């Protein structure tokens, strides 16, 4: 389990690389899963239930659908972006990420871990030209930059 933002993606990459390189049987035998905590909480006005979004796109879709259905989001606390798991109250973390009845888990495959290992090797390895090429190819995706 890691944060839902870009920092969490970095942590997941590091953990998958560690598991792939030093504990591969855990992945090969299907024992590794990624818990998916939400990135946003939407609190609609009135008695509408809270919604959790796992991406910007999902948040935008929920907002559009809600507004189309006449719902309103309070300006002061209608949308909350979780900066990290530590920001979430324990009960909310249980309800959204840990409870077996409601959580979202992604099973890690050997291919997932190998891709993480490859990425880690490019970004942290000694081949400067490979890293430069990777950055140049992927600079267009800078929308994922979280500063």
Automatic annotation (TrEMBL):
- Gene3D superfamilies, per database record: 3.40.50.670
- The signal peptide, as residue positions, is none
- Keyword vocabulary terms for this entry: ATP-binding, DNA-binding, Isomerase, Nucleotide-binding, Topoisomerase
Which PROSITE patterns does the protein's record reference?
A: TOPRIM
Q: Which GO terms describe its biological process?
A: DNA topological change
Q: Which reaction does it catalyse?
A: ATP-dependent breakage, passage and rejoining of double-stranded DNA
Single GO molecular-function term? ATP binding
Family per UniProt? Belongs to the type II topoisomerase GyrB family.
Q: What name does the UniProt record give this protein?
A: Unannotated protein
